[in-house]
Specification:
By secondary structure, the protein is α/β, with parallel strands linked by helices. About 45% of the residues lie in helices and about 15% in strands. Helix 1 (about 15-20) crosses helix 2 and helix 5 packs across helix 6.
Length: about 575
């Protein structure tokens, strides 16, 4: 089928279409925020499948979170490429490790430790050291950084002088914890998530028959968010590929915000050096944000390595935001005397936006650390606004949602032929859903969750029945592809990456908060600047910025990033 005859290519802009038609060889896509990168790569894969260039079961699309993988899988399924696998690095490696371990090593693969904290606490206890929860989390991050950076214990010791130490510990104690943690896992025959990648990379390098089978299984690779690849993930990807080069990578150096976990944008920026005949395509047409938001983001990242120049292509959406083109004003900044004043003002602003017609699901409050969420959650609830803390609990892990899914699965086995909406609404009524939203925060929270399940009926193809709907729910549950809840989102900026809202409040724009206090050298400040850029570019229509002069740790001044972005303070 020619490109002109392929309906999958219709609706793509010229740059997106160039990506979709570049089906073979190494391709690097430099994609700015809101430029439609996910659309481009999913249509590229679907076009390759439709034209017969790709066998769907030989394509692997890799990303960094289960949620993102679920979204990719859903989009590919909708485009007719449902045989393509979309997985995280860890998910793909874990499946391969479990498959090959019994034959290569014998027995079942080692058990994965559910988290590092318990094991690290036991090591500290054996050393007769008492540490706070924050120190244990810092130690867990150090273990992760060492492994993703592919450093041995001795190599890590040589680099430790340049690393910030977990509070209350000496260099020698940190090294003893690293050795003790490694020994404890070996003694228990356990591995952590980084070990999954280490072991699979090693197996592929050491066992030619394993490498042959994996490379026969997967021929074409697409890697999203490539700016967040660590040395360990890059090594695994290289062993997957072998001497082949059918690889498409997509990323934005300005959104590298996981350097603390070993991520490096160097693999994205130096892709052309690794693959000299690679094709490079840029996506700079911004379809997410209004012009004032785009100008602000561009000023913040001007002349930074790998920065792209975004161009605004959308006007305010009155249906979503209540704003007209004339209302698209420059992002505003407010400076408050106390954290309580800031939270109250944000709640009042959100309440006004909701009263003007903006849906709560189109509003977010973003902050640097999770510890900041409580005061905004409380202020919004006092204002009568329903909230959800992003990342606090997965939607499909809720007890009320699990029960609803179970009842729908049961109904699918009965073979009910009534209209889908009627069947699902009747099932949800049995779980406590009503046509009218109840009063009270707890009851409203459950109602919103069940209403979100019902809203998925509208996304089903015409003529779909309860069996197809049940299968869709199971697929979403497996990949954590969550529906939209009618609630204001509270989220740390790291967790908000990849998401967008009509109205975004970025709070805590004070020195010592954003940038955070422990960011003292130029490299750390650069990371905080990129984090701020990610926060700004989550906004579609309206961006409101605020900071606080007073806090628990004394007086503060406005964040330096405001001046860099041209905001008067």
């Amino acid at each position: 089928m020619s490109g002109d005859a392929d309906p999958i290519l219709s609706g793509l802009d010229p740059d997106q279409r160039e990506i979709a038609e570049a089906l073979r060889g190494p391709v690097v896509v430099l994609a700015g925020a809101g430029t439609g990168k996910t659309r481009a790569i999913t249509h590229r894969i679907a076009h390759g499948v439709r034209t017969g260039v790709y066998a769907p079961d030989r394509v692997l699309a890799v990303t960094f979170t289960r949620k993102a993988a679920g979204e990719l899988q859903g989009r590919l399924r909708a485009l007719g490429a449902d045989g393509v696998r979309a997985q995280t690095f860890h998910g793909a490696a874990l499946a391969q490790l479990g498959h090959f371990w019994p034959d290569i090593v014998g027995g079942s693969a080692p058990q994965i430790v559910p988290g590092k904290s318990a094991a690290l606490s036991q090591v500290l206890e054996s050393m007769k050291l008492r540490a706070s929860g924050e120190t244990v989390r810092d130690l867990a991050s150090e273990v992760e950084w060492r492994k993703t950076s592919m450093l041995s214990i001795d190599d890590y010791a040589a680099r430790l002088e340049a690393r910030p130490l977990p509070q209350g510990l000496t260099h020698e104690q940190v090294m003893d914890v690293q050795r003790g943690y490694t020994a404890l896992l070996e003694e228990r025959r356990q591995i952590d998530f980084e070990d999954v990648l280490v072991l699979m990379t090693g197996m592929l390098e050491a066992e030619p028959r394993v490498a042959l089978q994996v490379r026969e299984r997967y021929r074409f690779f697409t890697v999203d968010e490539y700016q967040d690849v660590s040395p360990l993930q890059h090594a695994l990807l290289s062993t997957w590929l072998g001497n082949r080069d059918d690889l498409c990578v997509v990323g934005d150096a300005s959104q590298t915000i996981y350097s603390f976990a070993g991520a490096s944008s160097s693999y994205l920026l130096k892709f052309g050096a690794e693959y000299p005949h690679a094709r490079q395509i840029k996506l700079e047409r911004n379809y997410r944000s209004t012009e004032p938001v785009v100008r602000l983001a561009n000023r913040l990242m001007r002349d930074r390595p790998g920065a792209l120049t975004l161009r605004a292509f959308r006007e305010p959406d009155p249906a979503a935001s209540g704003l007209s083109k004339q209302d698209a004003q420059a992002p505003s900044f407010e400076w408050f005397a106390s954290e309580g004043d800031e939270a109250a003002a944000v709640a009042a602003s959100v309440r006004e936006a909701v009263a003007s017609g903006t849906e709560p699901s189109n509003i977010a409050v973003l902050y640097r650390t999770n510890a900041q969420s409580a005061r905004f959650e409380q202020a919004l609830q006092l204002a009568g606004i329903n909230t959800r803390v992003h990342g606090a609990q997965r939607f499909f892990d809720r007890a009320d949602v699990r029960q609803a899914v179970m009842l729908i699965r049961g109904e699918a086995k009965v073979g009910d032929t009534r209209p889908l909406f009627q069947i699902v609404s009747d099932v949800l009524r049995a779980s406590g859903w009503t046509a009218r939203a109840p009063e009270g925060a707890a009851a409203r929270d459950k109602w919103e969750a069940l209403a979100a399940v019902l809203s998925l009926v509208d996304e089903m193809p015409e003529g779909a029945g309860i069996k197809e709907f049940s299968e869709e729910l199971i697929a979403r549950q497996r990949t954590q592809h969550e529906p939209t809840l009618q609630a204001v989102t509270l989220s740390a900026i790291h967790a908000a990456k990849g998401l967008e809202w009509s109205l975004v409040h970025v709070v805590g724009l004070s020195e010592g908060v954003l940038p955070i206090a422990h960011a003292v050298d130029e490299e750390a400040i650069d990371e905080e600047r990129r984090l701020t850029y990610v926060a700004f570019t989550r906004a579609r229509d309206s961006l409101r910025l605020s900071g606080v002069a007073g806090g628990a740790r004394g007086r503060r001044v406005p964040s330096r990033f405001l001046a860099e972005a041209g905001i008067a303070v």
